[in-house]
Design goal:
Number of helices: 16
Helix content: 55-70%
Largest sheet: 8 strands, mixed
Strand order of the largest sheet: 3-2-4-5-1-6-7-10
Order of helices and strands: HHHHEHEEEEHEHEEEHEHHHHHHHH
Strand content: 5-15%
Radius of gyration: 37 Å
Structural class: alpha/beta
Shape: elongated
């Protein structure tokens, strides 16, 4: 048996040996359902309460209303997003018990060609293959191989079952020129247990492509980089004529490209905060060369498929581990990406904006308070001499105090409304204040000084009381905001605890798989 056939048969044996160990995920799923229900109730119970001192026209009130609207509608949005994932869940159920590999790459990366060639190799070893495509969310089996082309021909989701336990899911490129194709791929990526990242040897390792896989990589799905089209056209002399021949790139060239892609991929994953352990060792292949040379054992081996078979075999175990917890993972992904993701991208910025407006309002009030004091003084004090001239000769203390209190109250109401009119401040009129003893100041000038001093003291005190009302209202608003933030932080930590349990404890590790990897 040639080395090539042995390598292929080892891959086929690994695929045949895939067996789903029953794992009871009911408790984990119940905890996930309970978590989202608790979150919805908590958000409803922690609406931002605006204090009565802040009027509805205030930017703070408007921003609080925006936050509350998000709290009210969030649960409905989450429900619709969960329903939108139903096609992906149905697809996963259709292939339950099999390991599904998502074949990802930019259009013209050779995805369909690789899938078809691997199917041919399984057939060559007497294993059944079944091609299919997805139409209206249904699996449609077909006898036709996957469409191949120099431009993107994968206008629909398609794939092939290799033997009884392995599925290749060939998708429209996430960098597709057709927006509908990219959207189609995104809907079904949840179904995959691992990812084959195909990158052409003409420009290998374009790591920006991995941004489209960020969700899958953060989910811990293993990633195998495959450098395709690893061939060159060279001129040679055949029977006295110069002809162009397709040949594999040299092993040295392939190893250099693989090392480069590996380094690029590792750096990109670090930048994306993805665990480096998901990255498998890169391999190079040339489907076209293997086909042109008749798909003989030698041609298949020299085209890189012995090493590819070993790489695929090594990815089966981590993919199988993911598949065992997939039904719970799909819901976890939804809660992390759609629920917590919406909180982080919409609710938290709205809350941050509200907190920023609150800080700005505190600074503004602090700045306005002395201005109001000065404005009231400028309005009241010029009227003191005329009031004294009318009242002092009569020694009518009550009349003087009442007139001063009335003038002072009117000035306060006017200036407070002018400077902080978006706060509803209550300013009760204080009769008989400030108290002034005329008999103690028979001299007019000393009487005027005493009255002015008492008025200034009263202005300062009453303006402080007015602004204290505003501050108490802002304090109450801040308490409401902090309570909501505490709820959000607690719910985040709670979901992360469930996630750690699912990843580390809910699915037992395969000793056989560990032994095979080592």
């Amino acid at each position: 048996m040639t080395l090539t056939l042995a390598g292929e048969q080892q891959l086929i044996a690994a695929a045949d040996g895939i067996a789903l160990t029953a794992v009871d995920l009911a408790q984990v799923k119940q905890r996930l359902h309970a978590w989202v229900s608790e979150l919805a109730l908590a958000l409803s119970a922690h609406q931002i309460e605006m204090p009565g001192t802040v009027r509805t026209a205030h930017t703070l009130a408007q921003q609080a209303s925006e936050v509350n609207a998000l709290l009210t509608t969030s649960a409905q949005v989450w429900g619709r997003q969960w329903e939108a994932l139903e096609p992906a869940r149905q697809l996963a159920q259709a292939f339950e018990g099999r390991v599904m590999l998502l074949v990802f790459g930019k259009f013209n990366a050779g995805k369909s060609s690789l899938c078809n060639f691997l199917a041919d190799r399984f057939v060559a070893h007497g294993k059944p293959v079944q091609y299919f495509h997805v139409a209206s969310g249904q699996i449609v089996e077909t006898a036709e191989p996957l469409c191949e082309g120099a431009v993107e021909t994968t206008a629909r989701l398609q794939g092939v079952c290799l033997g009884a336990n392995l599925v290749l899911l060939d998708t429209p490129g996430l960098h597709s020129v057709t927006p509908e194709n990219a959207a189609l791929t995104q809907r079904f990526t949840d179904s995959a247990d691992a990812v084959l990242w195909l990158t052409s040897s003409t420009s290998p390792g374009q790591v920006q492509e991995l941004d489209a896989l960020a969700r899958e990589l953060h989910r811990g799905k293993p990633l195998l980089p495959i450098i395709t089209r690893s061939d060159v056209i060279e001129e040679d002399e055949v029977e006295g004529e110069i002809v162009k021949l397709l040949r594999n790139k040299s092993l040295a060239n392939r190893l250099l490209q693989e090392a480069d892609v590996q380094a690029r991929g590792r750096a990109k994953l670090k930048q994306m905060n993805v665990e480096e352990g998901v990255l498998q060792s890169a391999v190079s292949v040339s489907v076209h060369t293997a086909r042109v040379q008749g798909a003989t054992a030698q041609a298949v081996g020299e085209s890189g498929f012995v090493r590819l078979c070993a790489a695929l075999q090594s990815i089966v175990d981590p993919a199988q581990s993911y598949r065992q917890r997939k039904s719970a993972e799909v819901m976890l992904h939804h809660l992390e990406e759609n629920v917590l993701g919406a909180i982080e991208s919409h609710l938290q910025p709205a809350l941050s904006q509200l907190a920023s407006l609150l800080r700005q309002e505190r600074v503004r009030l602090q700045d306005q308070q002395p201005r109001v004091v000065r404005a009231v003084r400028r309005q009241v004090l010029p009227e003191v001499p005329s009031m004294l001239e009318r009242v002092a000769p009569l020694h009518d203390v009550t009349a003087l105090c009442e007139e001063i209190a009335e003038v002072l109250h009117g000035a306060l109401v006017h200036q407070v409304a002018h400077h902080i009119g978006d706060h509803d401040v209550r300013l009760p009129q204080e009769r008989g204040s400030p108290q002034i003893g005329l008999a103690d100041h028979p001299d007019y000038e000393r009487l005027y000084e005493a009255v002015e001093e008492r008025i200034q003291q009263s202005i300062t005190q009453r303006v402080e009381l007015a602004f204290a009302q505003c501050s108490r209202g802002l304090d109450a608003l801040e308490v409401s905001m902090l309570a909501l933030q505490d709820v959000l932080a607690g719910q985040h930590d709670s979901l992360m605890h469930i996630k750690r349990h699912l990843r580390n404890d809910a699915v037992p590790h395969s000793d056989a798989g560990e032994a095979r990897r080592h």
